[in-house]
Design a protein that fits this description.
The complex is a heterodimer of chains A (about 450) and B (about 230). Chain A is an alpha+beta fold. Chain A has 2 domains: about 180 residues, no CATH class; about 230 residues, no CATH class. Helices cover about 50% and strands about 15% of the residues of chain A. A 6-stranded mixed β-barrel of chain A has the order 2-3-8-5-7-6. Chain A is elongated and about 100 Å long. Chain B contains 7 helices and 10 strands. Chain B has a single domain, classed as P-loop containing nucleotide triphosphate hydrolases (Rossmann fold), CATH 3.40.50.300. In chain B, strand 4 and strand 5 form a beta hairpin. With about 230 residues, chain B is α/β, with parallel strands linked by helices. Chain B has a 6-stranded mixed β-sheet, sandwiched between helices. Chain B has a 4-stranded antiparallel β-sheet with strand order 2-1-4-5, covered by helices on one side. Chain B is globular and about 50 Å long. In chain B, helix 3 runs parallel beside helix 5 and helix 5 runs parallel beside helix 6. The chains are: A alpha+beta (about 450), B alpha/beta (about 230). Chains A and B meet through helix 1, helix 13, helix 14 and helix 16 of A and helix 2 and helix 3 of B.
Chain lengths: ~450, ~230
C-alpha cells in the first residue's frame, strides 16, 4: 500500500498545484528561516577540536582590580599579563603550553619577486612552538619552529596556505625568506587549510574571524618590541615608560593555553597556578581572593558566550516564524483535504478503513513536507550566502550547510508538516461516507 | 443473506429528532433483485446506507451473511464492506484524476490482491461492462452511461455478494438508463444479489421483488416476480 499511497499523494498534489505551491512556500520559508539561524548557532557552538577539547585549557589568573571583578559574575580576566605569561612558560608543569598574541606588520618580498608584490599589512599570530602540536595544526610543508628558536627569539615563520600562495605561488617555500616588520624571516612551515570554528584559541579578536596570515614566535614579537594587534585591558595605570614599561604592567593582553592530558596533570597545574598566585600576593600583586581557572574548550566557549544572546533570540524568533508558517499550512491542508471529502467518502464506501484514509493523507502530508523541506534547504543556502556576503570578515565555514544540517532541515520539514497535517488528516479520516456520496 | 429485524435509525440535530427508519424488517435472499421504492424522505437511502455498512443504526438487529454487524469495529466493517458489498451511486462517484483502470482498482487495493490478480479482475470487470478498450481513458472523456458502467465495473471487480444501487439511472437519459438496467439484470442473472433504490416504477417492475417504504417502514411488498432475464 505504501507505493499506492505515494501514487495517490502525487495525483492529489497535481490536482491542486496552487494549494500545494502555497504549502510548499509556507513550509519552505519557515524551514529556511529556522535552519539559517540554527545552522549559524550550531556552528557557533560546535566544539572545533572535539578529540582534544577536554585536554586543552584556557588559563585564567585573577590578577585584577581588588575593588571589582574583571567581569560578572566574579570572572577572572580572559587574558594574562606578560609577567604571568613568562612565569608560567618558564615554570608551570604543562605537557604543552603557549602564550599568544598578535602583531600587524608590513610583509614584503626581496629581490626580483619584491617588484611583483606590493608590500602589504598582515597580522601574525605570535605564539610558542607548542602551539602547533597542541592545537593539531596541519602542515602542508615543513613544520613549526623549535623551542630553542623560541628562546632565541628567532626570525622564523609559519605561513598560512593563503599567504604562501600569495607570496610564493603555493610552492614549497620552506627555507625561503621574506620581510616582516622590516626583518628577514625564514619560512619553516606552511600550513594546510586550517580555520577552526569558532576560533577557540583566541576569542578576544572575533570568535568567527579568519585565522591570521602567518605565525611567528611570541618572543620575537617582544624582543623586537612589536606592537600588539588585539585587545588589551588594564585595571590600573601603566607605571613604567615605553614598551618595557607596558609589558611590566598589570595590563592583560596575552591568551594562555595549556595541554593537560589527564586529571592528575590538571590538578598539578591548578595547584601550581594557585601557589603561584599566593607567591605573587606576597609581592603585592593578585589583590583579589584566589580565583584561578582552567577552562576546557567547551567550557571556554560557554564562559566567553561565543553563541551570543542575539543569535539565540534570533533563533527563537525564527522558530516562532516556522510555527506561524505551519499554522498556515494546517489551514491550507485542511482546505485541501475538505475538498477531497467526496473521494474519501467513496474510498470508505468501497472498503477503506479510517486507518487507510489516515495513512493515505499522512503520506500526502509527508510528500508536501519533503518538497517544502527541499525548498527550505534552498532558502537556507540562500540565507547563508546572504549572511556571508553581509559579513565578509567572518569565517566562511560558519555559513556552510553540512550534510547533517541539510538532512536535519528536510527531516524537520517533514516532521513539522506531518504534525501540521495531523489535524486535517484526522478530520479526513472522519468523513462520513454516506453524507458525501449522496451530496456529490 | 441480508436480514434486518426491527431496525430503527433516528437523526438528531439541534434537538429535532427525525426518525428515518422505524422497526424496519426485511430479508433479502441470495440471488434476489430487490427494488426499493417510496417517496422522498421515506428512508430508502438510509436503509441502503445501513445495508451497506455506511451508517450505523440505533436499535434492532442486522445480520449480513449471518454476521451481526452491530458489534464490528471500523476495520472489520470496512473489510466486510469491501468483500461483500459493491456500491453503485446515482452520481457515479468516479475519481476524475484516475483513469478507468485505476478507478476500478480502488476497492481491489483495499482487499490486498497482488498486481496480477488486480489486473485480471479489472480487465474482466471492464470487459463485462463493455469498456475494456478504454481503460486508459479518464471519466470526463466518457458519457454518463459509460461512467455508470465504469462504476458498476468497480462494484463488480471484487466479486461482491451484494450490489447496492442508489438510483443508478437517476442521472441518465432513458436510452442510457435502459442499457444500465439491462446490465444490472445480467449481473443479477449471473448470481449477484442486487438491492436497488429507485423512483422509476418501470425499472422497479423489472426487479424480482418491490419493497415500498413509507415513513421509515416497509409498507408493503407490492409486486413480486422473477427478474426478467
Amino acid at each position: 500500500m505504501f507505493s499506492y499511497y505515494i501514487k495517490l499523494a502525487l495525483v492529489s498534489m497535481r490536482k491542486t498545484p496552487g494549494l500545494v505551491a502555497l504549502m510548499v512556500l509556507a513550509i519552505g520559508l519557515g524551514i529556511g528561516a529556522a535552519m539559517t539561524t540554527v545552522t549559524v548557532n550550531y556552528l557557533m557552538g560546535t566544539n572545533p577540536i572535539p578529540h582534544k577539547g577536554d585536554d586543552l585549557f584556557a588559563i585564567q589568573l585573577d590578577s585584577w582590580d581588588p575593588n571589582e571583578p574583571h567581569s560578572e559574575p566574579n570572572l577572572p580576566p580572559d587574558q594574562v599579563t606578560y609577567t604571568d605569561a613568562i612565569n608560567l612558560i618558564d615554570s608551570a608543569p604543562a605537557f604543552r603550553q603557549t602564550a599568544q598574541s598578535r602583531t600587524a606588520q608590513v610583509i614584503e618580498l626581496t629581490g626580483e619577486q619584491g617588484k611583483e608584490l606590493k608590500p602589504y599589512l598582515a597580522t601574525a599570530r605570535t605564539n610558542y612552538a607548542d602551539f602547533f602540536p597542541m592545537f593539531d595544526v596541519p602542515f602542508l610543508y615543513g613544520k613549526g619552529w623549535t623551542k630553542q628558536e623560541d628562546l632565541n627569539s628567532a626570525f622564523v615563520a609559519v605561513l598560512s596556505k593563503q599567504t604562501n600562495e600569495k607570496l610564493f605561488g603555493g610552492e614549497n617555500s620552506v627555507g625561503k625568506t621574506f620581510l616582516f616588520g622590516a626583518k628577514v624571516m625564514q619560512v619553516v612551515g606552511i600550513l594546510d587549510t586550517w580555520a577552526p570554528l569558532p576560533k577557540f584559541y583566541d576569542l578576544t579578536t572575533g570568535a568567527f574571524d579568519e585565522p591570521e596570515a602567518l605565525y611567528i614566535p611570541f618572543t620575537t614579537q617582544v624582543s623586537n618590541e612589536w606592537g600588539r594587534s588585539g585587545n588589551t585591558n588594564c585595571w590600573k595605570p601603566v607605571d613604567g615608560e615605553g614598551y618595557q614599561g607596558f609589558i611590566q604592567s598589570e595590563c592583560v593582553w596575552i591568551q594562555f593555553w595549556a595541554e593537560l592530558p589527564n586529571e592528575e596533570a590538571k590538578q598539578d597545574y591548578k595547584s601550581f597556578i594557585d601557589n603561584y598566585a599566593r607567591e605573587q600576593k606576597k609581592l603585592g600583586r593578585f589583590p583579589r581572593p584566589l580565583n584561578n581557572r582552567l577552562n576546557s574548550v567547551p567550557q571556554w566557549l560557554e564562559v566567553q558566550k561565543v553563541v551570543t544572546n542575539d543569535a539565540q533570540i534570533l533563533m527563537w524568533l525564527s522558530a516562532l516564524f516556522l510555527l506561524v508558517c505551519l499554522l498556515n499550512t494546517i489551514g491550507l491542508m485542511l482546505a485541501k483535504f475538505i475538498g477531497k471529502s467526496g473521494e474519501i467518502g467513496l474510498r470508505r464506501a468501497v472498503g477503506a478503513s479510517k486507518q487507510s484514509i489516515f495513512n493515505q493523507h499522512l503520506m500526502e502530508a509527508t510528500c508536501v513536507g519533503l518538497l517544502g523541506g527541499l525548498f527550505g534547504l534552498f532558502l537556507t543556502w540562500l540565507g547563508l550566502q546572504g549572511i556571508q556576503s553581509l559579513y565578509s570578515n567572518l569565517n566562511n565555514a560558519l555559513m556552510q550547510l553540512d550534510i547533517k544540517m541539510a538532512l536535519s532541515a528536510v527531516l524537520l520539514a517533514i516532521l513539522a508538516t506531518v504534525l501540521a497535517g495531523l489535524y486535517p488528516t484526522i478530520m479526513a479520516s472522519k468523513v462520513l461516507p454516506a453524507t458525501q456520496l449522496k451530496s456529490q | 443473506m441480508l436480514k434486518m429485524h426491527n431496525v430503527s435509525k433516528a437523526y438528531i440535530t439541534d434537538s429535532v429528532k427525525t426518525q428515518a427508519l422505524q422497526s424496519f424488517s426485511l430479508e433479502v435472499k441470495a440471488g434476489d433483485f430487490i427494488a426499493v421504492t417510496g417517496p422522498s424522505g421515506s428512508g430508502k437511502t438510509t436503509f441502503l446506507n445501513i445495508s451497506g455498512l455506511l451508517e450505523g443504526f440505533c436499535e434492532g438487529q442486522y445480520l449480513l451473511d449471518g454476521q451481526d454487524v452491530s458489534k464490528l469495529n471500523d476495520k472489520d466493517r470496512s473489510r466486510l464492506r469491501n468483500e461483500k458489498i459493491g456500491f453503485v451511486f446515482q452520481s457515479f462517484n468516479l475519481i476524475p484524476e484516475l483513469n478507468l483502470f485505476d478507478n476500478v482498482d480502488v476497492p481491489l487495493r483495499y482487499r490486498g490482491f497482488n498486481k496480477a490478480q488486480r489486473k485480471q479482475r479489472i480487465e474482466e470487470a471492464l470487459n463485462k461492462v463493455g469498456l475494456a478498450g478504454r481503460m486508459n481513458h479518464y471519466p470526463t472523456q466518457l458519457s454518463g452511461g459509460q461512467q455508470q458502467r465504469v462504476a458498476i465495473a468497480r462494484a463488480l471487480a471484487g466479486s461482491p455478494a451484494f450490489l447496492l444501487a442508489d438510483e443508478p439511472t437517476g442521472n441518465l437519459d432513458s436510452q442510457m438508463a435502459d442499457g444500465v438496467m439491462a446490465l444490472l439484470k445480467e449481473i443479477n442473472a449471473s448470481g449477484t444479489t442486487i438491492v436497488m433504490v429507485t423512483h422509476d416504477q418501470e425499472q422497479a417492475l423489472q426487479a424480482s421483488r418491490i419493497i415500498h417504504v413509507r415513513d421509515g417502514q416497509v409498507e408493503e411488498v407490492i409486486h413480486e416476480q422473477k427478474a426478467i432475464a
